[in-house]
Design goal:
Largest sheet: 5 strands, parallel
Structural class: alpha/beta
CATH class of the largest domain: Alpha Beta
Radius of gyration: 19 Å
Order of helices and strands: EHEHEHEHEHHHHHH
Shape: elongated
Number of strands: 5
Number of domains: 2
Strand content: 5-15%
Number of helices: 10
Distance between the termini: 70 Å
Amino acid sequence: MAERTPIRVMIVDDHAVVRSGLAAFLAAYDDLELVGEAASGAEAIALVEKLRPDVILMDLVMPDMDGAMATRAIRDRHPNIQVVVLTSFPEENLVTRALQAGAISYMLKNASAEELVEAIRKAYAGRSTLAPEAAQALIHRTTRADRLGHDLTNREREVLALMSRGLSNVEIAERLVISHSTVKFHVSNILSKLQATSRTEAVALAIEHGLIQPSTDRD
């Protein structure tokens, strides 16, 4: 019987240690073959043209171009390539954006090795896998009242409150002890969820709808 061709997998994550860990994990499975790694969405789009993977493990929170944007660009050009989102964030807006962009599956980075490899195999076969937290987020999105800002996460509310005090992204990152790129990601989500075109408009809408209290104190 002819030996089955391994599933060609590409990893996209801006953290080298994550890419290294996933590469070591993939090497343990004979039916999976790592064909490339990318540290950004833009790099992923360029590499796909050359490597033509079967399945991409795609991070979401990355600087410059996030995973959802990269997924949409890749799927538009190569609809036969399946994208499995692998992230630490199960928020409703992220799940929806990723799936609307064309991702077939949404997995969290706390998934076991067997869960992740099964998601890759199912994606290759055209079948979807949703982490329980992602499935629950979608349920919440369809059952929760459609009130402006209802889908803001606790972290996004914290960022929004600091935005209202006039803090910059760098200052917010220092205050919350998170990376600058993560703050940018949260701010982008806030603007999207509040349907705002600027930070000032987002803060004004948040105050108007009682999401935060008005404040001029930067401390």
